[in-house]
Prior knowledge:
The protein is of the alpha+beta class. It has two domains: about 20-250, Lipovitellin-phosvitin complex, beta-sheet shell regions; about 255-395, CATH 3.30.1330.60. About 20% of the residues lie in helices and about 45% in strands. It has helices at about 1-15, 255-270, 305-315, 335-355, 380-390, and strands at about 30-45, 50-65, 70-80, 90-100, 105-110, 120, 135-145, 155-170, 175-190, 200-215, 220-235, 240-250, 275-280, 285-290, 325-330, 365-370, 390-395. The chain has a 17-stranded mixed sheet that branches. The chain is globular, with a radius of gyration of 25 Å. The N and C termini lie far apart (about 60 Å).
Amino acid sequence: MKRFCLFVLIFLGVLLQLQGESFRFNFAEGQKYKMLTEVKEKVYVNDVLSHTALLLNKIAFEVLKVDKGAGLIRGVFQVSEMEGSTLYRLRDEEFLAEYWRSPLGEYKPSKREQLMPLTRNIPLFPEKEIEPGATWKAMGEEVHDFRPFGIDVPIHIPVEVNYVFVSVEKSEKGKIAKINLKYEFNYPLKDLLKIPGSHPVLVIGRVDQNYYWNLDRGHVEHYEDSFDVLYHFNDYRAYEFVGTSAGRLVEMQEMDKKKLAEEIQNTIDQQGLKDTSVKEEDTGVTITFENIQFLPESSVLVAEEKEKLNKISSILKKYPERDILISGHTARFGTEESSQLLSEERAKSVGEYLLSLGIRRPDQLIYRGFGSRKPLGDNSTEEGAQKNRRVEMTILEN
Length: 398
């Protein structure tokens, strides 16, 4: 009898270990979240190391509609690059995409021509329940941007993805499944052979990714991967990108912009901060520091401006989950190129000072410059020029 009971317990234990799991995307209308991915890559030209790049990809998603389990998703895609400092500089270009995604992960874009997202139908889950150790294959797609080479149409490369359901672990966020996915491709660009000028004619690549999926919530928690992509050109040049990336999903709560703006305005009034204002915007709440003072023709903040930032930082610390965008503006002087560079350097200087106060992680502070392209006043008057010499700090909703 004891042996029988022991056998039953062992048998039940095996059944529990081999319990099948159902992988499904779970969409809810109005849901907002963002995916942050840090990329470290080395760039080789003709097998010689050219440079190393550190990139921050940020995608802000919103589920617009749900129909039969599928979600209509709007995504805003931004890329920032770290250039010899502790902060990421936001590139000027921003991409907007809308697409349907099924519970199994099938992707249906509103327009095939849209560039983002760069990977599609990855992951793509099986319909039936699967157990740890299960494997499957499914077709996915990579989209490559060849605009730097004069080719305006995105290039779509089909890939066969090999999946392995590795394991399941429990965490405070729920049951987390680890999936390994790998694929390789060797894709000749036959349609580009007749195009004049220098451009890629062959793309070779591989991706090896560990994907951590929340079975209870129906979304990815985080992932990490390694990649190697090689472009062969028709003029016998070769560009290779080798690196790693790590991404994580952040669910966002609705921002009470009015309350936040009022709280910041109260701080401005109580502290008697001069040339400082606050306003609500589509992207979040923006604090504007007009006539911000730096040493002449430089990006070195004067002590009085640092004191302003010290006082504002008490507000920023109350919302640690919100990213901050620092935007620099100048009055018109010299060339537009010099104005642009100075505006970027000043925005970076403000961002680095905020970082030194410990109010955010480096991946939560990004900066950009507008030069003198967005004046608030007339540059021919000192009063107008003071309005244009400003730095704006936006507490972002997503």
